[in-house]
DNA sequence: TTATTATATAGGATTAATTCTTAATTGCAA
DNA sequence: TTGCAATTAAGAATTAATCCTATATAATAA
């Protein structure tokens, strides 16, 4: 698949750039998370990979995800005290979180992208990223009640 | 102190509203968190209270904070997989998070308050809250490097 | 290629965070 | 007051995250 090849190439570049080895584990983990849009936890990725890669340890998955986060291959999304959740989507986007089922859904909006950093905030901090975070009830949970 | 009395009254109202008992533990915990602006974890609140209330258990602090969160007395702030952090500030506000020291600083901005919920998002979700979340380097950490 | 070496991994141990269990206590309504 | 349902303390159990170390391996250079 095209997107898979692209993923390995992106990974390879980043590894070379940071002097990291391109191991089968790293490839499997990066490909696994690239196929998600639900911001999975380390444990979810671990379980997903277990079938194809029975010898992999949870520690490797967790450590690798943190490494990826450190080199900017993915981000830890803002959560609410539950296990860390990872997001391979580096494009500017926003999040909606359901307070019932705790799902985090990507929101794309030019309008939100265009929200500016006011001058007084710029002088207080070095702002590297911004995001609009919405919360409420998702469609599925709305149906249930 | 005036703000302290106010805190107890707010707590009492909410407790009556939800059929909860007004216990000394709840009062102590609510007053403690009302005096913070640094979005402390349950553990920090626990340590803060320990001096005045040596018999209180960590579990009580944690459970009580979650109860407060459930009845809307405070909120669990968006974090990054670390222990839950609580925010008694229910006024519309925004957050800046330092990626170095993990401090979360309140940001007040009329401009950010005025950011709207687009129509297509309203139709997908029942949006109950919104916040602009900034991240970057805070002043203190900028000095260090 | 092959040898070398620094890095990475597996798997179990450890630590930390959170939640559960239970017996005792205590607000508060009657 | 009294009775009872809600709440608490304390420790156990569970779950999440990190650390340790012996082994394996990717990448480099001969």
Q: If you had to describe this structure to a student in words, what would you say it looks like?
A:
Two copies of one chain form a homodimer. By secondary structure, chain A is of the alpha+beta class. Chain A folds into two domains: 84 residues, Arc Repressor Mutant, subunit A, CATH 1.10.10.10; 54 residues, Ferric-uptake regulator, C-terminal dimerisarion domain (Dna Ligase, domain 1), CATH 3.30.1490.190. The first copy, chain A, contains seven helices and five strands; from the N terminus they run H-H-H-H-E-E-E-E-H-H-E-H. In chain A, the strands form two sheets. A three-stranded mixed sheet of chain A has the order 4-3-5. Chain A has a two-stranded antiparallel sheet with strand order 1-2. In chain A, a hairpin with a 5-residue loop joins strand 3 and strand 4. The longest helix of chain A has 17 residues. The first copy, chain A, is globular and about 45 Å long. The interface between A and B is large, with 40 and 40 residues.
